[in-house]
């Protein structure tokens, strides 16, 4: 293969230039005659094809892969390595990067518009432009119709010529003007002429002895005689870089850039490259003080005695004064021609924006509100003339207010200095339609201007201080009608004879001077009496005080005519200022997206399934179409806003002009403001605390939340789906008609077509989704029952949540039962139905915070009564009819305002209990008739929040809710019935521990609420050993015992009955004397008395032991015998058979062959304890048990789903193995996690999962070694485990109904597998019949010196387990065959076990390891050989490939639920 051909692809793909790279690569491959292989048209030959065809295709495919990987960057190449065919790589690249053509097109258009010559030469500038143009043409080629391609190409060529010329540097201005007038349309011709001009300019600038220095062929005096920088003769020269006089840009020290060598750090005059080439020589040492500076040798131009320095040829004869005059004449002519279209010959009222003007200036004296004299000051205009400045002041024309404006009578136009505006803190933006002046800090629009010809005229400007006009109070006053009268200039006497300015007749006219003496008022006497009575009467209104003076009610007299119109005092203004009334907006927006309203809601007290807590609305003002985006954090708003703006530009071809929001911090972030300025989007903000100014989106928030609550109440869908509910409501609102649009829907207004209503369905209804083939077998149902929760934006289908799988399904094949709600009463019991009171309203009007963002926390019992004890005695005694009880039904009134009449209140109380948000002390309510009917402008202040059912943390919180009151009543009844304590007087030195209530909600597997639980617990952490307690140990059943019982019951066909003891710990008898404080709310007896505990109570350290002793005594009296192998196992042999009882705290399982004995023991336990019979076992200790003719199926599916949901891995990508093959982890590898809590929590949950999942035992054993020192690599291994569980959530253990009670064991070891300690890993498993009952994967406690020793230790460990299981099964009435067999794949270890002769290889093995020899000698155990391929325990010692993993899993009796139901 010719590797050199790879160089033919000159452009390398970097992730952004796909269009141009694809063009080059496709043509290159076509030249190699491999294009059909690349595109997939030539398929890979089959196995029956000729060998030559197969070899040719493989060779071509290899060449293409090499070329592809060699012409892309490293990240892209790594993403392609997973493909084996070049056509798959090519298809991946086209699918991934070609779809982004719209965004790339926008990037190219922006780059083309911003590209300028800058420091590039003509060739570099042309190549940069050509690169962008070429990629743009390739990207948009398919968008241009063939018939119009020629016209489009011609128009693009003309436009690009003009664009290329417009971005040239200033030295190319002459040639640019010439090319534009010649109307050249070919860019190649333009570039050729520009390159020739560039060569000419460089050659003239670099002539060594000719006497010409610059591109202008003009004569200059030698360096010794010409004026130096900064001298008076050069102060008229202005640098365009630093704006300082005395030098030009090419010699600017601040620019610090050389235009010759194109390097930073020096200027042309100091260029070392120019000096080395002999083109820069120091000037003569004689002359001025600048002789040490290098300078160009120049010719003496003009004047007598002109000669050429260094004998060069003579230069031009123009003197510097002549050059300056020519330039000034040219500028004056250009300025006159520009003003000719906008300025008339007479006085003009227009104000022209001028970037060259250093100050605002005007010739109209009459528009000055204030005018002050200036010292001798003059201006030099473009024609060289000097005109005087007569004054400076503030201009106020009514529409334009400009401070620091110069009065220049001889000036023709009125000029607004752009530079002065920017110095005043403004930003000026120009475009083809006009200009806008904004405040740089707040973004407020201060003024606007229009474009007339090529000049910009300022139409209005209000000033940067935020007021409408600039007013100097010292020189102006306001009459009663609000008209401003200004004093232009006068002396202190007001006679106008001496104004202090050097006035001419045309300027200072005495008739124009305003004499304010007529308005002089002596208010000293009247004001003092007025103020005195104003203060005496407590600051009344001025009109009321005038009336009192007018009616002679006050003893003093004040001339009211002399007082005039006196305003209130400053204290009155501070104390009495009220809100202004809001007027309807008269703004008209003719096009969509001219104005967009937006606001952010949150945080929600309920985090959604995907972790969202906020949502943002974007509303188009013209069409009222609404978009909703959901966020996890406020900081994501900038990203969401950019996505929305990009979507509008791409989908609708529109640019948002104005975005209106509140002044929240998320909307004024620097990132968002910079983006708006870059995009030219004006941001309007409501005033702080005035949400009415953003009323459109505030009312939309209320509307969306009201309808969201309605559909949640109706459907009874859990609150965790609030995101889906809001998304659905916004989808439906956009399709509902509104009077604002003339009874049209927003959808119709935006898309100009009617929406399709035929696909709408009832939110929360029951639906049946067709399952894909891989999720069902031939005898399984074809559909699964789901709940409909919305519509998909990206798919033409419905969003349906599958509660059994806890996943969201996007389906097209769906059957709906719209009249049957999934979470209806048929699926949810009464307590759960009442528990769906999860939506509460926030307070409105005077209770609502003034924040422009809706309140974050709801007003509920959990937040309003954290530290308030209830004063009602009913609450103290757990009354279920408390006056502050919340509503329990979803049909409660949604009116958030208070009732204005007793009748309405009583009717409300008859229909339902009061609201849970009712405070303990009633709020003071107004008795006015319009109570509850706010004015229309206040509608924006109603806000709502979605709140969950909160679990109380304090008694005062729970006492407000009748559901928790009922739960506490049940608990207290049980305590009293059981005679848990006696009330005794409190004595001195009595050791009294505290008590408290704890609350919890018990859930159904589908997420619905089963019941509310309340329990009194003692604060056992205050107990002292030896005083309040001694022994605390209580045994619990081993999981190996549970599995053995399951295996025996499955083989013998025994039923498994589950029992539960209510309040189990309350049955235990205490031996110690313990005193406890009365539980909160317990009012019996004297309040000073304490509880002397007779029975054990939850929270006491000895409570578990006391309960087990009580149960132990009771069950032994019933004729049971405690097992010697597991203390939690009890058996009773009868004539009819055997009864077996397992207990784990308060959960019990009874099985056996004696059915009468089972009923008898159940009756005994019922009489002794408060027993709950639960029937055939289905859920025990987190294990889900199913039974069929095939046996028992035990899984932990619900536990896995809960684990995935808590880890937010419900939507992860599944994988086929729990750990990567041959992966070895070490403590030293990777970056240590800053927070180890997540890792510890996940590993702890996974350990419990190994009770039914031996296939993950090895992976869990590995990751559990790094708890506390976990790194990101260890966390990645745990995450892979979660992905495997996502794939195998339905997998469980099968206990077959057939088989004989034969015990077999498999033992294996991974020699020195631990990288940190080099210890080996033991793995073994034990089967009873075909059922797997015990297994272990653990790291050995000693380092083995050989693989034989490691294997031998593993067999020794499993032999101990076999002996224990043999004794246990005997107690269960199962006769096991002996010898029990152990299978290993290490022949040396087998020989050591059966050969009692000691030899060298066993000298270092401890004596206790040889325990296996004794068992072999006794005939209990027999050791046999099994090949490694068939070694079942191999899965417990190492990570294997996918195919082997599933093979060994099947040998461990792991099955899926479908396989169990189908009998596979």
TrEMBL record:
This protein's name = Integrase catalytic domain-containing protein
Where do the record's region annotations for Disordered lie?
278-317, 847-922
Query: Has keyword Acetylation?
Result: no
Taxonomic lineage:
Eukaryota, Viridiplantae, Streptophyta, Embryophyta, Tracheophyta
Name the residue ranges with Low complexity bias. Answer: 306-317, 847-887, 895-904
Q: Membrane-spanning residues where?
A: none
Q: Where is the Integrase catalytic domain?
A: 588-754
Q: Does the keyword Kinase apply?
A: no
User: GO biological process: any one?
Assistant: DNA integration
The cross-references to Pfam families, in alphabetical order and at most eight, read: gag_pre-integrs, Pol_BBD, rve, RVT_2, SH3_retrovirus
Q: Which InterPro entries does this one have?
A: DNA/RNA_pol_sf (IPR043502), GAG-pre-integrase_dom (IPR025724), Integrase_cat-core (IPR001584), PolX-like_BBD (IPR054722), RNaseH-like_sf (IPR012337), RNaseH_sf (IPR036397), RVT_2 (IPR013103), SH3_retrovirus (IPR057670)
Lineage, top-rank taxon, reads: Eukaryota
A GO term for molecular function: nucleic acid binding
Q: Which SMART domains does the entry link to?
A: ZnF_C2HC
Entry keyword set = Aspartyl protease, Hydrolase, Protease
Organism encoding this protein: Linum trigynum
């Amino acid at each position: 293969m010719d590797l050199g051909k790879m160089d033919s692809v000159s452009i390398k793909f970097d992730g952004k230039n796909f269009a141009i790279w694809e063009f080059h690569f496709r043509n290159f491959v076509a030249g190699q005659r491999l294009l059909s292989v690349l595109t997939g048209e030539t398929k890979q030959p089959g196995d029956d094809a000729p060998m030559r065809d197969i070899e040719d295709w493989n060779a071509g495919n290899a060449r293409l892969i090499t070329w592809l990987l060699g012409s892309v960057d490293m990240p892209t190449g790594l993403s392609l390595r997973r493909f084996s065919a070049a056509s798959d790589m090519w298809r991946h690249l086209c699918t991934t990067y070609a779809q982004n053509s719209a965004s790339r097109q926008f990037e190219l258009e922006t780059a083309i518009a911003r590209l300028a010559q800058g420091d590039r030469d003509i060739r570099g500038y042309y190549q940069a432009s050509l690169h962008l143009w070429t990629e743009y043409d390739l990207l948009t080629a398919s968008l241009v119709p063939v018939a119009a391609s020629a016209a489009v190409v011609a128009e693009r060529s003309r436009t690009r010529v003009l664009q290329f010329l417009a971005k040239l540097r200033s030295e190319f201005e002459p040639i640019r003007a010439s090319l534009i007038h010649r109307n050249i349309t070919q860019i190649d011709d333009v570039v050729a002429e520009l390159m020739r001009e560039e060569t000419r300019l460089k050659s003239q600038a670099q002539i060594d002895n000719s006497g010409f220095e610059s591109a202008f062929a003009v004569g200059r005096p030698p360096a010794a005689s010409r004026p130096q920088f900064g001298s008076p003769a050069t102060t008229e020269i202005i640098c365009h870089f630093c704006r300082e006089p005395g030098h030009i840009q090419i010699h600017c020290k601040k620019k610090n850039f050389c235009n010759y060598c194109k390097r930073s750090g020096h200027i042309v005059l100091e260029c070392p490259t120019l000096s080395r080439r002999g083109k820069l020589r120091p000037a003569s040492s004689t002359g001025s003080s600048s002789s040490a500076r290098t300078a160009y040798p120049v010719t003496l131009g003009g004047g007598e005695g002109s000669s050429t320095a260094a004998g060069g040829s003579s230069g031009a004869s123009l003197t510097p004064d002549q050059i300056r005059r020519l330039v000034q004449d040219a500028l004056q002519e250009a300025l006159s021609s520009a003003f000719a279209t906008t300025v008339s010959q007479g006085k003009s009222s227009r104000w022209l924006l001028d970037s060259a003007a250093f100050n605002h200036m005007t010739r109209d004296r009459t528009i000055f509100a204030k005018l002050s004299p200036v010292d001798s000051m003059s201006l030099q205009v473009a024609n060289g003339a000097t005109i005087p400045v007569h004054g400076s002041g503030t201009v106020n024309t009514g529409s334009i207010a400009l401070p620091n404006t110069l009065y220049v009578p001889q000036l023709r136009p009125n000029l607004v200095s752009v530079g002065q505006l920017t110095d005043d803190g403004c930003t000026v933006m120009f475009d083809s339609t006009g200009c806008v002046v904004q405040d740089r800090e707040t973004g407020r629009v201060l003024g606007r201007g229009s474009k007339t010809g090529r000049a910009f005229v300022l139409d209005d400007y209000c000033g940067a201080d935020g007021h409408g006009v600039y007013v100097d109070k010292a020189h102006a006053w306001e009459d009663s009608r609000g008209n401003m009268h200004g004093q232009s200039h006068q002396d202190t006497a007001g006679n106008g004879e001496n104004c202090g300015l050097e006035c001419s007749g045309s300027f200072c006219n005495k008739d124009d001077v305003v004499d304010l003496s007529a308005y002089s008022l002596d208010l000293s006497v009247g004001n003092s009496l007025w103020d005195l009575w104003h203060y005496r009467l407590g600051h009344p209104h001025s009109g009321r005080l005038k009336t009192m003076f007018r009616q002679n009610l006050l003893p003093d007299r004040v001339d009211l005519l002399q007082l005039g119109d006196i305003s209130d005092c400053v204290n009155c203004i501070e104390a009495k200022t009220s809100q202004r009334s809001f007027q309807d907006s008269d703004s008209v927006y003719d096009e969509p997206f001219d104005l967009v309203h937006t606001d952010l809601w949150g945080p929600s007290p309920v985090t959604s399934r995907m972790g969202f807590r906020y949502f943002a609305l974007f509303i188009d003002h013209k069409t009222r179409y609404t978009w909703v985006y959901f966020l996890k954090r406020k900081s994501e708003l900038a990203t969401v806003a950019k996505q929305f703006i990009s979507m509008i530009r791409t989908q609708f071809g529109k640019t948002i002009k104005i975005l209106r929001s509140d002044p929240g911090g998320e909307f004024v972030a620097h990132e968002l403001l910079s983006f708006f300025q870059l995009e030219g989007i004006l941001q309007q903000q409501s005033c702080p605390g005035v949400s009415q100014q953003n009323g459109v989106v505030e009312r939309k928030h209320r509307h969306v939340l009201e309808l969201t609550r309605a559909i949640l109440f109706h459907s009874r869908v859990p609150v965790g789906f609030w995101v889906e509910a809001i998304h659905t409501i916004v989808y439906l609102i956009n399709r509902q008609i509104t009077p604002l649009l003339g009874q049209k829907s927003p959808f119709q207004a935006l898309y100009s077509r009617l929406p399709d209503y035929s696909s709408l369905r009832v939110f929360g209804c029951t639906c049946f989704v067709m399952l894909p083939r891989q999720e069902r077998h031939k005898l399984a149902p074809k559909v699964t029952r789901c709940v409909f929760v919305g519509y998909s934006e990206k798919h033409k289908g419905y969003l349906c949540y599958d509660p059994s799988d806890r996943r969201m399904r996007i389906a097209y094949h769906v059957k709906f039962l719209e009249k049957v709600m999934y979470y209806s009463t048929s699926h949810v019991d009464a307590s759960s139905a009442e528990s769906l009171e999860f939506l509460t309203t926030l307070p409105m009007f005077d209770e609502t915070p003034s924040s422009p963002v809706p309140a974050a926390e709801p007003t509920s019992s959990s937040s309003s009564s954290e530290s308030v004890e209830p004063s009602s005695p009913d609450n103290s005694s757990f009354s279920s009819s408390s006056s502050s009880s919340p509503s329990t039904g979803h049909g409660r009134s949604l009116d958030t305002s208070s009732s204005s009449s007793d009748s309405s209140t009583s009717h409300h109380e008859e229909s339902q209990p009061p609201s849970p948000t009712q405070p303990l002390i009633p709020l003071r309510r107004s008795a006015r008739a319009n109570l509850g009917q706010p004015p229309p402008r206040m509608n924006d202040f109603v806000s709502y929040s979605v709140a969950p059912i909160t679990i109380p943390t304090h008694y005062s919180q729970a006492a407000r809710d009748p559901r928790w009151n009922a739960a506490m009543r049940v608990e207290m009844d049980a305590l009293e019935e059981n005679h848990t304590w006696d009330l005794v007087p409190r004595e001195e030195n009595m050791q009294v521990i505290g008590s408290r209530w704890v609350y919890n909600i018990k859930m159904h597997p589908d997420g619905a609420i089963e019941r509310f639980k309340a329990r009194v617990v003692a604060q056992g952490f205050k107990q002292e050993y030896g005083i309040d307690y001694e022994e605390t140990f209580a045994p619990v059943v081993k999981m190996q015992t549970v599995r053995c019982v399951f295996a025996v019951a499955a083989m013998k066909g025994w039923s498994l009955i589950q029992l539960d003891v209510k309040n189990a710990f309350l049955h235990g008898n205490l031996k110690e004397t313990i005193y406890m404080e009365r539980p909160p709310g317990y009012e019996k007896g004297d309040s000073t008395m304490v509880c002397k505990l007779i029975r054990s109570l939850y929270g006491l350290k000895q409570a578990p032991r006391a309960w087990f002793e009580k149960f132990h005594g009771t069950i032994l009296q019933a004729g049971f015998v405690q097992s010697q192998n597991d203390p939690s196992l009890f058996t009773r042999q009868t004539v009819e058979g055997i009864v077996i009882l397992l207990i784990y705290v308060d959960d019990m399982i009874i099985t056996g062959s004696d059915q009468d004995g089972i009923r008898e023991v159940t009756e005994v336990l019922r009489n002794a304890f408060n027993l709950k019979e639960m029937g055939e076992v289905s859920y025990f200790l987190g294990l889900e048990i199913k039974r069929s003719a095939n046996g028992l199926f035990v899984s932990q599916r619900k536990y896995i789903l809960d684990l995935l949901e808590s880890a937010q891995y419900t939507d992860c990508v599944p994988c086929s193995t729990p750990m990567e093959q041959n992966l070895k982890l070490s403590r030293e590898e990777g970056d240590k996690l800053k927070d180890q809590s997540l890792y510890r929590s996940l590993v702890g949950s996974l350990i419990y999962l190994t009770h039914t999942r031996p296939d993950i035992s090895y992976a869990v054993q590995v990751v559990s070694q790094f708890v506390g020192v976990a790194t990101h690599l260890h966390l990645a291994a745990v995450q892979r485990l979660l992905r495997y569980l996502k794939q195998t959530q339905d997998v469980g253990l099968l206990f077959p109904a057939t088989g004989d009670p034969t015990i077999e064991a498999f033992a294996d070891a991974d020699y020195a597998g631990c990288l940190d300690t080099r210890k080996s890993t033991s793995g073994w498993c034990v089967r009873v019949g075909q059922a797997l009952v015990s297994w272990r994967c653990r790291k050995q406690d000693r380092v083995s010196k050989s693989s034989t020793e490691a294997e031998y230790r593993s067999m020794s460990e499993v032999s101990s387990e076999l002996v224990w299981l043999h004794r246990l099964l005997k107690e269960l009435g199962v006769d096991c065959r002996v010898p029990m067999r152990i299978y290993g794949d290490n022949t040396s270890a087998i020989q050591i076990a059966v050969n009692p002769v000691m030899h060298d290889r066993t000298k270092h093995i401890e004596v206790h390891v040889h325990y296996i020899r004794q068992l072999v000698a006794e005939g209990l155990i027999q050791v046999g050989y099994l090949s490694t391929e068939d070694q079942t325990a191999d899965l417990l010692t190492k990570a294997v490939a996918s195919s082997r993993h599933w093979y060994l899993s099947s040998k461990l009796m792991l099955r899926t639920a479908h396989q169990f139901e189908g009998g596979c």
